[in-house]
Amino acid sequence: MLCGFQYCHMKPIPSDIRIIYDAALRKKSVAPASHFRYMKWLRYYLDFCIKYHHAPVNRESLAPFLKKLKDKNQSEQQRKQAFDAVSLFYQIKNADQDETHTVNDNKENISTKKHELKEINADWNPVYKKIDSEIKLRHYPPKTLQA
């Protein structure tokens, strides 16, 4: 399992990428209950890229990531989920390349689209869903969200 002591030291997904990725999940009609899994795999992938010095936007980084998951005894279904999550990340990175800017995250450059940041509105439900998925991802007690 990828959780445990190492997981506590993983960096969160940068907020601008998280916003764009969440918008892409909604656009692709991914069930809201599955969003936390997609975010989890994206977070693992970005952490893997930083740790092993891979470029996150380079599709060649996916094969070593999936091999690492296999080496860690992740099931075929889990590896497929990870593949789907990272593939969606590549899709949002490759769309509209001329409207990008660079975000520096621990010496790693990750490009994001400026115009997609405007998709956020005053609806708090996505925020609560993100918090809920983060609570589940960190294995906190369910009452944490209530607090």
Topology:
Layout: H1 5-8, H2 15-27, H3 35-51, H4 62-71, H5 76-94, E1 100-105, E2 108-113, H6 125-137, H7 143-146
Antiparallel strand pairs: 1-2
Walk me through this protein's architecture.
- This protein is mainly alpha-helical.
- The chain has one domain.
- The protein contains seven helices and two strands; from the N terminus they run H-H-H-H-H-E-E-H-H.
- It has a two-stranded antiparallel sheet with strand order 1-2.
- Strand 1 and strand 2 form a beta hairpin.
- Helix 3 crosses helix 5 and helix 4 runs antiparallel to helix 5.
- The longest helix is centred in the middle third of the chain and has 19 residues.
- It is globular.
- The N terminus is likely disordered.
Short summary:
The protein has 147 residues and is mainly alpha-helical. The chain has seven helices and two strands; from the N terminus they run αααααββαα. Strand 1 (100-105) and strand 2 form a beta hairpin.
Looking at this protein, list some descriptive labels.
147 residues; two-stranded antiparallel ribbon; 7 helices; 54% helix; 8% strand; globular
The assigned structural class equals mainly alpha
Dominant shape: globular
Poorly predicted tracts of residues: 3-7, 96-121
Q: N- to C-terminal separation? A: 28 Å
| Largest sheet descriptor | 2 strands, antiparallel
If you compute it from the alpha carbons, what radius of gyration comes out, rounded to the nearest whole angstrom?
15 Å
Strand fraction = 5-15%
Given the structure, what is the number of helices? 7
| SSE succession | HHHHHEEHH
Number of strands: 2
